[in-house]
Amino acid sequence: MPLRIATSLAAAVALLPLAIAQSPQWGQCGGQTWTGPTTCVTGSTCVYQNPYYSQCLPSGSGTTSSAVASAALPTGTSTAKSNTVAKTLGGKLYFGSATDNPELSDATYVAKLGDNTLFGQITPGNSMKWDSTEPSRGVFTFTNGDTVTSLAKKNGQLIRGHTCVWYNQLAGWVTSGNFNASTLTSILQTHCSTLVSHWAGQIYSWDVVNEPFNDDGTVRSFVFSLAGGTVPNLNYITTALVAARAADPKAKLYINDYNIDSAGAKSTAMQNLVKSLKAAGTPIDGIGIQGHLIVGQVPSKAALIANYQAFTALGVEIAITELDIRMTLPETPALRAQQQTDYNTVVSACKAVTGCVGVTIWDYTDKYSWVPGVFSGQGAALPWDNNLVIKPAYDGIIAGFTN
Ligand SMILES: *[C@@H]1O[C@H](CO)[C@@H](O)[C@H](O)[C@H]1NC(C)=O
Predict the structure, then answer these.
(1) How much is the mean pLDDT over the chain?
(2) What is the CATH number of the domain that holds 119?
(3) How far is CA 18 from the centre of its chain?
(4) Is 175 touching ligand 1 by the criterion CB < 6 Å?
(5) Catalytic residues per the record (predicted)?
């Protein structure tokens, strides 16, 4: 689900506050592409939190938001290392993090990202997507993806490739080209083949297809699912998987989606897709369960396990690929405690299922989370705070792999 900020979802979310002249206390008042009010109601001051988010905080409560936060909020206490524990006690291949090229200029951030006792796997958040890699037809740019893969390799970390085909962050030339079905198939083959070939031998797993379903389990409608018709279909998925397998026979090939954490129409649709791909002999190795969740609304451990096992019973592995657990700001000690429980629930459910190979968080620090830029008034979704200090959520992760 993570999008660059200038997307239709962000635009839709940002439309809401347009009619309001001033943001309320605790409301958003700035950030990249923020189009709402930049002044706060009397008694509040607009305080910068990160490039995507500024917030109206009570006036006189401190010079920075982190000064306010760190005085009142509990931090993590565990000294164990998340990737080490995931492998040794959790029996997993990795605990990992997404990252993105802009934050690689932050040396403190990079030092922690590169610590392979904390993170054994890296996912490039944006730099392998279509708009970044084939911005014009046949013109491929791999520079930013190379930067992330080089860093991961230098630090002895696995890499998850992300992604060959997604309805979002597609290059404009694809969607507006009025191509017929056979040309679209060829465009997709060329894109996946070239992308996966470029990093062949370096990638643990590829999210070949991202987010093929709507939340009700129907097939998402976009240029590739509509190729040659008016009813969305899943034929493009076979094209992409076959091209990816040929380009890098050793990479595990995944389909990745959100809201498939527990049983429901979308999870059922994904399981049916796996069954039909397997029946047709199409290569499919894994399902990525993104895990963009909300504090206090995480399914029970039993519900997660039952759903994870429904996938692994079909002969695919699974991974938690984009975990973050967001809350309505501001953070409180109670919300941090609930978030610790929620991270523990997801990680311990993955531990309990043999075919769940690893857990990836969608960046590790709130400083670079996508959440505040897309979900107005929400954030603090990650186990490290804005100052790269561990939160109780980190202890929840460690306990989840340990117990
Ligand atoms: C599809 O478009 C291509 C390129 O314009 C053309 O060569 C081809 O004949 C078309 N195929 C069909 C079935 O219309």
Answers:
(1) 92
(2) 3.20.20.80
(3) 28
(4) no
(5) 322 (nucleophile)
Query: How far apart (Å, rounded) are the C-alpha atoms in residues 55 and 34?
Result: 11
pLDDT, tens digit (0-9, with 9 covering 90-100), for 5-29: 433 333 333 333 334 478 888 888 7
Inside any domain, residue 63 = no
CB proximity list for 269: less than 8 A, separation 6 or greater: 213, 217, 218, 219
Mean pLDDT of 296-319: 98
Query: Pocket of ligand 1, candidates 183, 185, 190: which has the most ligand atoms within 8 Å of its Cβ, to mutate?
Result: 183
Report, as an integer, the average pLDDT of 122-151: 98
Is residue 317 part of the annotated active site? The answer reads no
3 state DSSP class of 42: coil
Q: Which of 134, 211, 317, 322 is the catalytic position?
A: 322
Query: Do 132 and 13 belong to one domain?
Result: no
The verdict on residue 348 lying in a domain is: yes
Q: Are residues 21 and 117 in the same domain?
A: no
User: Count of domains in the chain?
Assistant: 2
Please, how many CA atoms are within 13 Å of residue 369, restricted to the half-sphere of its CB? 30
Q: Is the CB of 117 under 6 A from ligand 1?
A: no
Q: Whose CA is nearest to atom 3 of ligand 1?
A: 183
Which range marks the domain in which residue 279 is found?
68-402
Q: What is the pTM of this model?
A: 0.85
